[in-house]
Amino acid sequence: MSFDRNQSHTLRQRLDESPTFMIVIAGPRQIGKSTLVRRALAGQPATFVAVDQPLPELVDPLANQLADTVPAQSIPGTQPTTEWLVRQWTQARAKARALPDGERYVLAIDEIQKIPRWSEVVKGLWDADRAEALAMHVVLLGSSPWLMQKGLTESLAGRYEPIRMTHWSYPEMQEAFDFSLEEYLYFGGYPGSATLIREERRWREYVRGALIHPNIEKDILQMTRVDKPALLKTLFELGCAYSGQIISYTKLQGQLQDAGNTVTLAHYLDLLSQAGLLTGLPKYAGQKHRQRASSPKLNALNTALISALAGYTFADARNDRSYWGRLVESAVGAHLFNTAVDDCQVQYWRESPDEVDFVLTNGRKLVAIEVKSSTNFAAPKGLRVFTEKFKKARQLIVGEGGVPLAEFLSRPAEDWLE
């Protein structure tokens, strides 16, 4: 596949500039962060190292005295250390200093968040480079956004520029893999699984084993404290099954064994959201304290996660209009959440018996969005009630009788606020 996402252009532009800020690329697992950086570095002086896969030249698997000749942190599978990080940085510095004047070197470090105290070490190394005016860019990649953010805000404020990456959109999957709209709705936006969709069982096993399991086991359970890991896993599975539905934390407690209190559930849902797996959209109420106390609307952030865990084949899903409707609504919710930037917020609204699928806000801008997957169109009453209650709101219907679904999924959330 030869396809460049929009972030590739941004990265190349920044690498063409003098090193003023570190470049931070963060986002969910398996969305092409490493591939994007490797392609951008092709043909230029650079070092790309992965924390969980140390440089191959440091390891001789045939050596009889491996433990005596190779530092422990250089052996694949061992815990990375700050010493390993300093060594990679020092080697890259030497190569940067050896370049002719006017040329720049690039050091890219993947999965940086797996190194203990990484942000403190990076701060010292980066500040030393800037004092020297060293012509070396530093690119940091990570798939645990909450740990990345913690290190960035605590130690590296003012020293980096982010490039945000998220799940692949419908236009990207269409251009790169010739996905139809229906295929995107069911198989989702993971590039690594795209070539497997003609073998659904194999595709499903790949998504479960290579995407879901590592996301939870490596990116969450190994990287942050979770007192009830079984509860986290079950909450994710239940959330995918209920994607597109509003469920109170009390009801979730009733569905889960050893659920603990609602604070624990809300915290675990937040971890899943930051990992790019499952989010709980808050209710729009116009008042922050009422939003925090509301029941969440569960939404998987990639419909592949729903399909891989459900008992529906592609054909079964298309033939069940109720199930397909929830898949469509989940795809719309995921698209809004994944493309919402800056102060753009995605919520829902309900005052029984009236409901609006999604509410999009940014400052004083307010859009109420209703998703219609049925061919029998009827003007949603919820939109009318909402706009009567909130006079500044604009109505938007996605699907039958409104903006075509393919068009809606082709434009970011902020476009619909204009």
Mind explaining what this structure looks like?
- It is globular and about 70 Å long.
- The protein is built from 18 helices and eleven strands.
- The protein has a five-stranded parallel beta sheet with strand order 2-3-4-1-5, with helices on both faces. The chain has a four-stranded mixed beta sheet with strand order 8-9-10-11, with helices on both faces. Strands 6-7 form a two-stranded antiparallel sheet.
- With 418 residues, it is α/β, with parallel strands linked by helices.
- The chain is 43% helix and 16% strand.
In a few lines, what is going on in this structure?
By secondary structure, this protein is an alpha/beta fold. Helices cover 43% and strands 16% of the residues.
Radius of gyration computed on alpha carbons: 23 Å
Q: Give the quaternary arrangement of the chains.
A: single chain
- Total number of β-strand segments? 11
Given the structure, what is the number of helices?
A: 18
Q: What is the ordering of alpha helices and beta strands?
A: HEHEHHEHEHEHHHHHHEHEHHHEEEHEH
Q: Which regions contain 5 or more consecutive residues with pLDDT less than 50?
A: 55-74
Structural class: alpha/beta
- Beta-strand content bin: 15-25%
Mean of pLDDT: 88
Helix content: 40-55%
Shape: globular
Q: Biggest β-sheet: count, sense, barrel? A: 5 strands, parallel
Distance between the termini: 35 Å
Strand line-up in the sheet with most strands? 2-3-4-1-5
